[in-house]
Design brief:
About 70% of the residues lie in helices and about 0% in strands. The chain is mainly α. The mean pLDDT is about 90.
Length: about 170
């Protein structure tokens, strides 16, 4: 398919794309897709995106992804595909939809791009499952945004990974 043909797809046609068809698109073709068309792509097909394709998505396209689509992103797609500028535009519900494995794989730069509102929205099970290396990467501002329930869910090892500033932020 040409880029013009991709642009001409209806939302229903875009929704019918398979993971293999989606993976075959060039990054140029993918970024030319309308956000409504990308939003219509099935959860199963989203897993077909390469990390290069994920990285090429515009911020508007990433922001338009449904929570189920974000939840379907593989750890590889999140870790090696999502750019920090894309993570910034994800809403709290989209961040909450990421698997614990995907959250645990975030780099310092990616993790720092998560808003305090999104950090506060993480489920206690997500917080409790994060490795100490990820807990240690949370900024003091992000750590201060955690709910009382999330703080209570921290394991002994996670608490030991906190900086003095993080502990002060608990007050």
């Amino acid at each position: 398919m040409t880029t013009d043909q991709i642009v001409a797809l209806t939302t229903a046609q875009a929704a019918a794309l398979t993971s293999a068809q989606l993976a075959a698109l060039t990054t140029t073709q993918l970024i030319k897709m309308q956000t409504a068309d990308l939003e219509a792509i099935s959860v199963a097909a989203i897993t077909g995106l390469t990390t290069e394709q994920v990285a090429a998505l515009t911020n508007a396209q990433v922001a338009a992804l449904k929570t189920a689509q974000v939840a379907a992103l593989t750890t590889q797609q999140v870790q090696n595909g999502l750019r920090s500028s894309q993570i910034v535009v994800l809403g709290s519900d989209q961040i909450q939809a990421l698997t614990t494995k995907a959250l645990s794989a975030l780099s310092t730069e990616q993790l720092s791009a998560i808003s305090t509102q999104a950090i506060a929205a993480l489920r206690t099970s997500q917080i409790a499952a994060l490795p100490t290396s990820v807990i240690a990467l949370l900024s003091t501002v992000q750590f201060a945004a955690l709910s009382s329930a999330a703080i209570a869910a921290l394991t002994t090892d996670q608490l030991q990974a906190l900086s003095t500033d993080d502990i002060v932020a608990l007050n």
